Amino acid sequence: MKVVRKVEDENQTKDHSPEHNSYIHMKKFKFIMLIFILIFATAGVTLLALSLGGESPANVIIQERKEFNKLYQAYDELDKNYFQEINSEDLINGAIDGMVNALGDPYSDYMTKEENDQFEESITSSFEGIGAEIQEREGNIVVVSPIKDSPAEKAGIQPNDKIIKVDDKSIQGMSSNEAVLLIRGKKGSKVDLTILRGEKDKEIKLTLTRDEIPINTVYAEMLEDGVANIQITSFSQHTNEELEEALNEMNDKGMTSLIIDLRRNPGGLLDQAISLSELFVPKGQKIVQVEDRNGAMEETIAKTADKIDVPTVMLIDEGSASASEILAAAASETANIPLIGVTSFGKGTVQTQKKFSDGSNVKYTIAKWLTPKGNWIHEKGIKPDYEVKLPEYANLPYISPDDEWKVSSTSEEVKAAEEMLKVLGYDPGKVDGFFDEKTEKAIQKFQKDEKLKTTGVLSGDTTVKLMTKLSEHLKKEDPQVKKAVEVLTKDKKKKAS
Known about the structure:
Mean pLDDT: 86
Helix content: 40-55%
Shape: flat
Largest sheet: 6 strands, antiparallel
Number of helices: 15
């Protein structure tokens, strides 16, 4: 109280002359200026210290995230002491790539600008390469499915084949994006692939000629008795439009029942799978459910009343993945559309992407998807209602037309040729991989029937024709399509009665 009182007394005794008031005003001004000077001086000292320390204010702010301290230290160490000048862009790309790989998710990838450009090209237009969907799985590059009529399909590449070498360069341990850059190339150029197939992991060497791979995703043909067969090879930007055109074409030709062939369809865009599912899933029912990391569920519900009104079945196999599984599961569980073939691939996750300003891109898994009934088919696949396998000869390896096989030759390619001849009705003798006189006579008869030069030697046009005839035979005798027609016929009879 005494202190307060003293101050009050002093204030009351101040001289209030104009001179004194002016003095008090000058003291306040000097005090304010002193504060500004101190602020600027402090800022100057801070900036000087940071510049001498080699760090910018931006770096100081970023390094407040302590989990990145080791990353910065490693970069600085390499930048300062590595025996050659480093490429900072390569190191940053490598760091991001390593971070994404550490997720252990084959469907999450970091793509450089070049890789991202190729990815976008593959879903929007044609590209040049061999035409095979691949993924990295446990350090191996594995084929999900070859594209219809592509060099990969014509060469006999199959789902689950492991590609271990490209032009004698090992690609084991590479990401799928790195492998794609090696496998793709200009139309007309050749690429040598070494693949492993089956449980025995026997090496098969193939030489493929790259070609333009058009992104036509829907192929339609009319079978007997009004059965339309429509194959969907992937889900790209215009698949729904292509399917609409195909359905109109088949309707004009008198379609009374429908086969949707999803075999060797590796998937693609989620919105396209939903759009196609609308053609089958009853209005108001679920098409697909997407569950995020927190368990929050987002349901996609069929909105339209117009549906395909003819009896329908769908074909699936081990190459049917992702978006094709969404369509198959939705049609099966809500519209009771029968599935025929073998268990599908089993990809039950959804990816999104973040594109950076330099054109690079990180694609990562954001959620898992569930069927309308809540089933997660990831790594399990969808089991068909009718299990029907293709014949063993459907898995015969490619035989290079550049190679020549004749009497006394011994190889796996000779054995494959003997099996092909036998399937086509020719007698090559014992199927053992040894080219004997019976094999030669079978080749001569085949050449004569196909109006080729009769040499008894397997090479060039003879090899190409032999593989083409086998493919045509498989298409004609396709047991999965035959089963589909049988199921549709029974369905027609039930409705008629």
